[in-house]
């Protein structure tokens, strides 16, 4: 059977790739926790573009920036779709989400709504709010260093709620029911919305009825849908109430609602696009800060150099702001190296092709999942020598200025590129700069004063995030 399949594949002229097994295809050959590792091994075996099939789904892995740009950017009219996940979308309440929408008119509308408010210029309006949240973050890290991941979630979640709904999460760890509702629902959703689950539930639709209390209960569709419905409705309804009472300030939601009335856009599209910002942006931003935190714990020498740079440029009586960024090249380099060292979306968000295509003489069937292997791009040793090493210097030239490489590929490609990237940059940059200005992060010590070496472990799903690890945080006292 295998040789028959092999011949069939060769006849079709697909890109090189692993031998499929009957029925399951290549599913069992792929690391189920870190599929990007398998794909990166395939890069060595088969090259920059690899074809495989799993459970009847054609898939193409793009293992270099060049190939990803050639297809996802230069041929974006064919490669801007997403995989057909209609079962998950419908039953699990994911249909609202811009991220997983097919390449259609509703998606275009969502993109316009989000992009209007998230362009480079308009996001500057939120810098003072971001700075205020960074200050809260510093307090929380100092008081409860062991809960860094929760603090980063609160930081990223409260910025998005502010930018999208003008919802002001109380400072100083106050409980906030809107943030709690949205964050919990998002946690449930993230679990379910992976390509793996989509394929599984498509193949075995009864899995969506598994009761919550049984093993596999996280696959229960009704529960997930209830949560995700709350996630889009609760903050949006609150915004509408505040509009009525005249209390709502500038935010993407208000702008979009005003425009939607003139342009006759249905209100639920505004609501859904707004909800998508949280689902796409909260976890990713928090994970990136956790990567930064790990890098700083492991590299005291990087911290010292960054602190020296800040102390030279920023007076001790104030915190760095995003306006200082051009005078702080090493901080910029740390930001870029954080994105590269452990990209929080190691496979980006896979695209799909709409029609058959030919690239470098290979057939790419329409309806393929097209996976940009961002992990492999970060491990390209020609561009990033010793790629496993956290080394901000790779983004500086001989004179200490930042290079042209902004590591943009971690934000995706073509028409689907992350619309939140300008906002994220400011959120991450200001958090990184303020943490380095005010705090010293060190490896924890055991009761006998011996250093505990962190042994990085990762939470892997669609995103990748370091598991909490022991460390100490001190105020530097500038
Ligand atoms: C470190 C933080 C972030 C990273 C690394 C990141 C990265 C990405 C990537 C790789 C994609 C897929 C692009 C593609 O399909 O080629 C994406 C899509 C998206 N991102 Fe982000 N993102 C981050 C934060 C945010 C934030 C804060 C927001 C919103 C405020 C946001 C909103 C979105 C949306 C709505 C999409 C879907 C775009 C579409 O499918 O058309 N992201 N992001």
UniProtKB/TrEMBL annotation:
Keywords annotated in UniProt: Heme, Iron, Membrane, Metal-binding, Monooxygenase, Oxidoreductase, Signal, Transmembrane, Transmembrane helix
Alphabetical list of Gene3D superfamilies matching this protein: Cytochrome P450
SUPFAM superfamilies to which the protein is assigned, alphabetical: Cytochrome P450 (SSF48264)
Membrane topology of the entry: Single-pass membrane protein
Name the UniProt record assigns to this protein: Cytochrome P450
UniProt pathway: Secondary metabolite biosynthesis
Cofactor(s) required for function per UniProt: heme
Single GO term (MF): iron ion binding
Subcellular location per the Swiss-Prot or TrEMBL entry: Membrane
């Amino acid at each position: 059977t295998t040789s028959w399949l092999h011949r069939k594949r060769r006849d079709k002229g697909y890109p090189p790739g692993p031998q499929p097994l009957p029925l399951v295809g290549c599913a069992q050959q792929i690391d189920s926790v870190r599929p990007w590792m398998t794909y990166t091994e395939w890069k060595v075996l088969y090259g920059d573009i690899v074809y495989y099939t799993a459970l009847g789904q054609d898939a193409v892995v793009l293992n270099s920036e060049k190939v990803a740009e050639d297809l996802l950017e230069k041929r974006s009219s064919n490669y801007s779709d997403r995989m057909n996940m209609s079962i998950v979308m419908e039953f699990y309440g994911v249909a609202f989400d811009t991220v997983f929408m097919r390449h259609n008119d509703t998606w275009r509308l969502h993109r316009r709504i989000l992009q209007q408010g998230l362009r480079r210029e308009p996001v500057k309006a939120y810098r003072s709010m971001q700075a205020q949240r960074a200050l809260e973050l510093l307090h929380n890290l100092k008081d409860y260093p062991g809960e860094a991941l929760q603090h980063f979630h609160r930081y990223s979640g409260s910025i998005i709620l502010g930018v999208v709904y003008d919802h002001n999460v109380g400072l100083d760890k106050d409980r906030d029911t809107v943030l709690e509702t949205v964050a919990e629902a998002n946690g449930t959703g993230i679990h379910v919305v992976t390509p793996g689950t989509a394929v599984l539930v498509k193949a075995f639709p009864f899995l969506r009825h598994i009761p919550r209390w049984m093993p596999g209960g996280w696959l229960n569709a009704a529960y997930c849908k209830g949560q995700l419905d709350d996630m889009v409705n609760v903050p949006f309804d609150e915004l509408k109430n505040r509009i009525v009472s005249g209390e709502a300030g500038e935010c993407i939601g208000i702008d979009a609602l005003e425009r939607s009335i003139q342009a006759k856009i249905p209100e639920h599209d505004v609501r859904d696009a707004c909800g998508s910002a949280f689902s796409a942006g909260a976890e990713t931003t928090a994970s990136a800060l956790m990567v930064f935190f790990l890098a700083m714990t492991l590299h005291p020498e990087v911290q010292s150099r960054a602190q020296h740079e800040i102390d030279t440029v920023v007076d001790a009586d104030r915190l760095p702001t995003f306006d200082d960024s051009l005078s702080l090249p090493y901080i910029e380099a740390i930001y870029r190296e954080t994105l590269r060292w452990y990209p929080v979306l190691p496979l980006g968000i896979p695209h799909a092709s709409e029609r058959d295509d030919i690239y470098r003489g290979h057939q790419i069937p329409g309806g393929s999942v097209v996976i940009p292997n961002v992990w492999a791009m970060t491990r390209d040793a020609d561009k990033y020598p010793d790629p496993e090493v956290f080394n901000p210097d790779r983004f500086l030239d001989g004179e200490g200025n930042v290079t042209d490489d902004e590591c943009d590929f971690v934000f995706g490609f073509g028409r689907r590129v992350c619309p939140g990237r300008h906002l994220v940059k400011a959120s991450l940059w200001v958090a990184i700069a303020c943490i380095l200005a005010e705090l010293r992060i060190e490896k924890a010590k055991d009761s006998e004063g011996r250093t505990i070496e962190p042994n990085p472990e990762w939470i892997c799903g669609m995103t990748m995030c370091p598991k909490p690890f022991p460390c100490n945080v001190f105020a530097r006292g500038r």
